[in-house]
Amino acid sequence: VQLQACGGGLVQAGGSLRLSCKATGTIFRINDMGWYRQAPGKERDMVATISSDHGTTYADSVKGRFTISRDNVRRTVFLQMDSLKPEDTAVYFCTSNNRYWGKGTQVTVSS
């Protein structure tokens, strides 16, 4: 299984970014997918998850600002991030079933 994430970058506070993660080597539609993030010196924390039947969960810190979605035809999971805050700065990782992990993409939010 390979997960390739992209879409990170530098954005000002209040701005938006859309992350995407394409999966190969797996039956994507039956996998639970998720996004985690890790800030310098901190543990990796769950940001959002989406199950095979499109059920979603969010960390309290991103509820109402971030939206996770999936496209089973394109084998891709997305994370739409709006109203970004400096505390959202981290490396964002996508995961398949919390077993396989992508390399991560840097998100930096300037104040």
What does this structure look like?
The structure is a single chain. With 111 residues, the chain is mostly beta strands. Helices cover 0% and strands 54% of the residues. The protein contains no helices and eleven strands. The strands form two sheets. Strands 2, 4, 5, 6, 9, 10 and 11 form a seven-stranded mixed beta sheet that branches. A four-stranded antiparallel beta sheet has the order 1-3-8-7, with no helix packed on it. β4 and β5 form a beta hairpin. The model has no long low-confidence stretch (mean pLDDT 96).
Short synopsis of the structure:
The protein has no helices and 11 strands. It is an all-beta fold and 111 residues long.
Please specify the SSE layout and strand pairing.
Layout: E1 2-6, E2 9-12, E3 17-24, E4 33-38, E5 44-50, E6 56-58, E7 66-71, E8 76-81, E9 90-96, E10 100-101, E11 105-110
Parallel strand pairs: 2-11
Antiparallel strand pairs: 1-3, 3-8, 4-5, 4-9, 5-6, 7-8, 9-10, 9-11
What descriptive keywords fit this protein?
single chain, mainly beta, 7-stranded mixed β-sheet, 54% strand, 4-stranded antiparallel β-sheet, 11 strands, 111 residues, globular
